[in-house]
Amino acid sequence: xxxxxxxxxxxxxxxxxxxxxxxxxxxxxxxxxxxxxxxxxxxxxxxxxxxxxxxxxxxxxxxxxxxxxxxxxxxxxxxxxxxxxxxxxxxxxxxxxxxxxxxxxxxxxxxxxxxxxxxxxxxxxxxxxxxxxxxxxxxxxxxxxxxxxxxxxxxxxxxxxxxxxxxxxxxxxxxxxxxxxxxxxxxxxxxxxxxxxxxxxxxxxxxxxxxxxxxxxxxxxxxxxxxxxxxxxxxxxxxxxxxxxxxxxxxxxxxxxxxxxxxxxxxxxxxxxxxxxxxxxxxxxxxxxxxxxxxxxxxxxxxxxxxxxxxxxxxxxxxxxxxxxxxxxxxxxxxxxxxxxxxxxxxxxxxxxxxxxxxxxxxxxxxxxxxxxxxxxxxxxxxxxxxxxxxxxxxxxxxxxxxxxxxxxxxxxxxxxxxxxxxxxxxxxxxxxxxxxxxxxxxxxxxxxxxxxxxxxxxxxxxxxxxxxxxxxxxxxxxxxxxxxxxxxxxxxxxxxxxxxxxxxxxxxxxxxxxxxxxxxxxxxxxxxxxxxxxxxxxxxxxxxxxxxxxxxxxxxxxxxxxxxxxxxxxxxxxxxxxxxxxxxxxxxxxxxxxxxxxxxxxxxxxx
Length: 608
Prior knowledge:
By secondary structure, the chain is of the alpha/beta class. It has five domains: 198 residues, P-loop containing nucleotide triphosphate hydrolases (Rossmann fold), CATH 3.40.50; 54 residues; 189 residues, Rossmann fold, CATH 3.40.50.300; 57 residues, no CATH class; 70 residues, Orthogonal Bundle (Helix Hairpins), CATH 1.10.287. It contains 19 helices and 20 strands.
């Protein structure tokens, strides 16, 4: 028999300023459960999380917590006042019976000493300390709202591994697809004030959501047709008995009411960049460039060429010098030695992660228009600022809203809107994905994919890097930067490991070089012991002949299983069939990948 839920929300509702934010939300978290909470920016995810944590009181509904259950919530903006050191702050979250050593262990694992002044922490450091305080007591339920924000790649990958070992239940809000896919087993979707739940992790959510929207649109068309038929009867067919007519007229009024009260999905952002005339073929060329600040080396002996149309990703731990590297490559800072040459006819647009251009007192309109008039020029065409705002999901009434009251996601959308209106053939984006919801991330990715200019991107979002860039420039420590072909996953395959924390990277560079040499020796030994190339035995020949048919059958099976799972009502109607189809789909996809790899291996052997 399944254990009762530790935390339950039933029929929760909350209204802000006359508009219902949450109307009929349900949430049930069982011991050890891994749940991701997803939804558009502004849908109320963080508010629902705070209700679950007991920090916000709903207008109606029931919150129940099993007696003795411990809950910890990761605050977006923790209050550090009154604490002398970061260790004091983390230890304040411990209760009687908690292991005291975990406070220092977690801080050191996150790159902190515990002796830092909490009032002087950067955004990323504050997030690490808040994470340590939430994780230290090993609670029964852990509520994490955007835990990866402001973290670098080493910290994100450490946190992912740490959370996999957590015994308590997790509720996660994050825009990091890979993070959610790795950790979640259940998905709760908050959409238009209502929650919907599937017993699958985030990796299956987007297909299920799209199928749900398609079904909803079909139902809406049926309603419209029914209303049209009833209105036709009202105008031309009121000849039957009066009692029946009155009842039918009442039904028509109810149909119209249903249409009025129907809450459609939130609008979709529209993103397009204003491209300038093409640049020269060569965009940036560095030869032996170096840059240091005092005894600290940021870049040493960097040689790289960026050509028109290239998509270069830059990754490294916090403090590695990614922003300095961008300033060198874009000519904003000169190198101490070596040369960096910029190409001809460059028109650059820089998106700065610090959002320094956003003055808190400026309104949304002033940011987009430069403080004058009510129009913005996009692609050489003048547009009214309200219409352009709508492209980025801003409501008309937000035109006079000051930047200071916008959410993090709204500020980032505003910054992107301002930047994309400027003609450019070189986009330099420093952490553009911060605080964006998944749908907006998809649109940004599509825009960058269609962009014909050159892109230099700094990001800690592994999935976004894989989708967008063609090569990755990685910090190897001690000022060394090495370029790898492909996205972040391809870089790991070539490098043998992900990005290391700066303190680790700087001490293991020699070890990594030794590891690469050892790897080359192993590959050489493997090549010597391998069978002669170009000779396929009978078994290999038979396998090569039959693999294409097997691949074709697996693709067909996968298509059929996906069609079954696309039914948004399947789980509610037949949970056993949903679970079986999900398992079969996972097995078929694994077998397809293995078959394709084997076919490629045999083809290469035959060609050799």
